[in-house]
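lol ok so funny story. i was supposed to be doing the assay writeup but got distracted and ended up predicting the structure for this chain instead. priorities right. anyway since i did it might as well share w the group, maybe its usefull for someone
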Amino acid sequence: MLIEILLAITIGILAGTFTGLAPGIHINLVALLLLILSGFFLSFTSPIVLAVFIVAMATAHTFIDFIPSIFLGCPEESTALSVLPGHKLLLQGRGYEAARLTSIGCFAGILMLFILIPFFIFFLPNFYETMKFLVPFVLIFASVFLIVKEKNPLLALFLFLLSGVLGIITLNFYVIKQPLFVLFTGLFGTSTILTSISQKTKLPEQKITSEKINNKEILRIMPSSVISSSLCAFLPGLGSSQAAIIGSQMNKRMNEERFLLLLGTISTLVMGLNFAALYILDKSRSGTGIIIQKLIESITLNQLFLFLAVMLVSAGISVFLALFFARFFAKNISKINYTKMNIVILLILTLMSIFISGWISLIVLITATAIGILAINLGVKRTQLMGCLILPVILYFIL
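and the output, tada:
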């Protein structure tokens, strides 16, 4: 059994690395294929081994997923906000540093899980309904606070509502498959790429440094990471992006470096707490969690601790993989014609949108791209474009 688990962890890390580096290929898709083929796999292994594979894959994906977001501007829901400070550091020759910060944040989040999960096992069931009640008010407060802080709050409100309406329409337009992929690609990916092409952006040579990060920086983001991740991991319709918006408003003097640390920490906290919800609440909060729940109907405490151990081992390996690929990108990206590379990436993302979400998704992609470019040209922070998820979630809880 031990050999099977170690093999499942190894293959899971490789699968998570692949999904992390390949934009548009999500771990939910791989987990679904595994479920479809589970009849074959269960003829020579057990459900818990398949679950271990999924947990290891999800962990590795969380670490690696930031690399294409920072260096190529190809975001997913959990990494969309990393495009903003990540791209800024990339243009300063600090792309490797940006990826390193998210990796350190991710590993810090894994370590925090060992403290948090025992606490949630004892207290969460009693406070679950209270948490559900608080969510829309927390999101409204965070959104209003973000808007008021803008130089032009009216423009910020306009873009927040505009992206929110687009999100409501897209998420409820069932003809479009994987709507979040198209939404975030347009709002944060292709809008950035087209702006870089129009400005003929040239990347400076990237510096590969390994300066020690002050432990106080990590400790400063922990309270906000824990609170926001806890709200968003256990409740339906919420994820890493909403947690990052809430968490960023709980930190004073939030700069690019601290924000990337926060994003990394939140991404692994939300991922780990989603799996913990299978045991604590007997409810799934993610696609991979649903697949595990179908493989193993009732998660035991011992199995939850096994998942934690798998996450720790996978994280220990994935942090080195993330730094390896970040170093590779940093060394080579400045040697490439950045404009030509952006044109190629733009074509790839467009084709992927058609392939993944169908031809009609091009309407959403073009609209989302236009809104993203509008935000850039108006000088409004693109965190306001998270209205595409925040507004539908607020309405979900209120109505």
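Residues 2-398 form one domain. The chain has a mean pLDDT of 84.
back to the writeup now i swear
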